[in-house]
Amino acid sequence: MRPLEDYLVIDFSQFLSGPSASLRLADMGARVIKIERLGVGDICRTLYTSNLIMNGESSVFHAINRNKESFEVDLKSEEDCEMVRELLKKADVMIHNFRPGVMERLGFDYPAVSALNPAIVYGEISGYGTAGEWKNKPGQDLLLQSVTGLTSLTGNADSGPVAMGLSIIDMLAGAHLAQGILACLYRKAVKNQGGFVQVSMMESAYDFQFETITTFMNDGGSLPERSKQNNANAYLGAPYGIYQTENGYLALAMGSIPQLGNLLGCEKLEEYVEVSEAFDKRDEIKAILASHLLTQTTEKWLSKLEPADIWCSDVLNWNALMAHDGFKVLNMIQEVQMVDGYRYETTRCPIRIDGELLTSPKGSPKLGQDNEKIIKEFITHTTINA
Amino acid sequence: MNRPLEGLLVLEFCQFLAGPSAGLKLADLGARVIKIERPQTGDACRSLSIKNLFVDEDSLLFHTINRNKESYTADLKNPEDLAKLKKLIAKADVMTHNFRPGVMEKIGLDYAQVQQINPKIIYGMVTGYGNEGPWKNKPGQDLLVQSVSGLTFLSGVDTDGPVPFGLSVSDIMCGNHLAQGIMAALIKRAKTQKSVLVEVSLLESILDVQFEVITTYLNDGGKLPDRSGAKGSAHAYLSAPYGMYQTQDGYIAMAMGNLPNICAIIRCDISDLYVEAGSAFENRDKLILRLAETFKQDLTANWVNLLESNGIWCAEVLNYQTATALSTYKNLEIEQQLELGNGKNIKTTVSPIRLDKRKLFAAKAAPKLGFDTESINREFEIK
């Protein structure tokens, strides 16, 4: 039995943040119905990343929306709204990520929905909260990375701002929304009480940076300084970073500098005997390390460092990773199938419950593919007067 | 305020970041979290500092991750201490640990044995790379996990080589996943009244972070990500203008948008580079460089005003000083103050989740090592 078996989630959200939360709930066993706009659907269906179109829709949509159903409605039609209200009366969770004010206009804001169903858990994601001067700004991932200082942590000192090359804030906001919803579902299970969960991308971005921003707050407001080269964390000393070798790269996470010098046969490093030098002189130490590590292969360096329990690793791309037994043993890839028979590979939920991998064979839904079934199952005859 | 996890008792055997960040999430949602720590040293994070910042004897880092918790010291190799711990485990709802595979089996606190003590326990485990396979004993360290996961080929420019994310992203996402798994397990237990095992690993979590791009890779004939060679580009899979551009006085970030429209607004001639919609991809590097020439010629604020008034998605790139000065930052109440006693206090972040219209403030500072041992023994009648 999956933890959320028999739970019904009605999801109005689009793009990545909200839908990544409902994907998690779906894999945990909930039934997720996407409420999609007539004729268009989730805009993510046509948001092409890398120009890769799979079965007529973007690869990203397929990754985010597998294991869900699609109910295509016109929220400007009273009849359709009434059907959605009927669904909400039976739902455990509702999710949306519209900009502030939209749900109020449509009549699906928290007061309205909790009046229909007081025990519902209502979750919403905004970019910058629901009040204040930025409430109407687009909650777009790169912009959130840019306005929260995150781009000053990655890359080297002279790189200028460097983004994390993924929609990381969307995913964090989705993860936090899922947490708030799960916490409220637990409360609902023991107290039959509803709940209102709100997450903003800005707060999620700072939660992600809680270590570094806390350092900033208590260190007289001094800014993070990335190392000149081989930076992997602005706040850590040498050797922390990734280095080029004769045939690839080597990641080095820890280790005292003289010990590294000894193991790697680099005498110059043995001079840095003061522990504080690893941070204070990290630029010169990293420069010495970088030129020394170029002289041998990654395998050679690993064979010297690993037996001494130095935290280090080869650096892999996806080809090398997926060929490795360390990856294969995880069974991280699953194949899913859409209603028209189209099959594709994607990753599975990263959480295991009672030893079970939370896989699901169900692919992403075609727009409106479940309308008939949902109407038959949930909607009373009087609603459909057509 | 009634917090959803009120009344639940969590025992945290975890150290460092991944597990303890999950414990912090559960604590802010209302659970009582007790850290089970080794005498004398405790969580190794107590002595692990960044920028050598300490508050009394513990690092600021430890304070950041472990606020709103209690501390109970026990030596897991001492039979007397272990017997006491088992009494505590019998009363707990959740326990978490991040020991390497095999350690808890030796101590006698693996899932099977803990179920004997408490048949309703939620048992959460964090590993680096899972419990089996050739990597199971590798150190579960964030940079190393990033390095084997392919993540380092997504940021920066192609000539940089691998570029890691400048934060412990695998730890933090894994902590988020552990918190999710534990709460799902609590929901399951409410129905079955039985114990539940929850397992996460840093590697699976960092792969989940890449789920969109890995799905693209898997269905695109195994084509590896192709980062741009142009400085400021922000996503290997997105076309121009997506990225950050230097201006006369700083940087501007440009989200995805209609390129010809944007170029008309900023008066940047791309007619030789952009001949059809596909050009935004094919000529990505050249287009980014062309846009960069234009953006250099004016102030960030002027560009943002011009573009925003035309409905284009963009923002000024801020650092911590300018970012924390925003009125939105203040309105969202991102900071809270923790009282440490003796008139000392530190500032840190609040939970990012708002429940029933309230922020989940929690002003309780991180515990000194073993601070709560005696009172917990008394409370649970442990002798």
TrEMBL record, chain A:
Keywords: Transferase
Molecular function (Gene Ontology), one example: CoA-transferase activity
Segments crossing the lipid bilayer: none
Gene3D superfamilies: Crotonobetainyl-coa:carnitine coa-transferase, domain 1 (3.40.50.10540), formyl-coa transferase, domain 3 (3.30.1540.10)
Protein's name according to its UniProt entry: Acyl-CoA transferase
TrEMBL record, chain B:
This protein's record includes keyword Transmembrane helix: no
Gene Ontology molecular function terms on file: CoA-transferase activity
Keyword presence, tRNA-binding: no
Keywords from the UniProt entry: Transferase
Domain of life of the source: Bacteria
InterPro entries per the UniProt record, alphabetical: CoA-transferase_III_domain, CoA-Trfase_fam_III, CoA-Trfase_III_dom3_sf, CoA-Trfase_III_dom_1_sf
Protein's UniProt name: Carnitine dehydratase
Pfam families reported for this sequence: CoA_transf_3
Gene3D superfamilies reported for this sequence: Crotonobetainyl-coa:carnitine coa-transferase, domain 1, formyl-coa transferase, domain 3
